[in-house]
UniProtKB/TrEMBL annotation:
SUPFAM superfamilies: 2Fe-2S ferredoxin-like. It comes from Zhongshania aliphaticivorans. One of its GO terms (molecular function) is metal ion binding. Keywords: 2Fe-2S, Iron, Iron-sulfur, Metal-binding. Its cofactor is [2Fe-2S] cluster. The keyword Iron-sulfur applies. It comes from the Bacteria. The keyword ATP-binding does not apply. This is Ferredoxin-6. GO terms for biological process: P450-containing electron transport chain. The lineage of its organism: Bacteria, Pseudomonadati, Pseudomonadota, Gammaproteobacteria, Cellvibrionales. Residues 5-105 form the 2Fe-2S ferredoxin-type domain. The gene is fdxE_7. Belongs to the adrenodoxin/putidaredoxin family.
Length: 105
């Protein structure tokens, strides 16, 4: 049985939402299941729309680098901060416990 991992989303209005999820779930699916404002997931997690853009906690350094298709979508959205990722491409694990994930504007 998997343990629940609790972390916080900051939605597009700046409001915090503490959520619980299981290791292996994507940030996009967790956000949409919890009605986090600013995460729509229009493509259903296919890395095709950019409606699940987030900023990862800087301490989550173990996350793999984005693939080129993800980088293209983020670039098309006009972000050049280098901290943005697509939530559909990030599966959570125990390292997310207590972290904060900010929805991109």
């Amino acid at each position: 049985m998997s343990n629940s991992i609790e972390f916080t989303f900051i939605d597009s209005n700046g409001d915090p939402h503490t959520v619980s999820a299981t290791s292996g779930e994507t940030l996009m699916s967790i956000a949409t299941n919890n009605n986090i404002r600013g995460i729509d997931g229009d493509c259903g997690g296919c890395c095709a729309c950019g409606t699940c853009r987030i900023h990862l906690d800087s301490t989550l350094t173990h996350i793999s680098s984005p693939e080129q298709d993800e980088l293209d979508i983020i670039e098309f959205a006009g972000d050049d901060s280098g901290t943005q990722r697509l939530g559909c491409q990030i599966q959570i694990d125990e390292a997310f416990a207590g972290k904060t994930i900010k929805v991109a504007q």
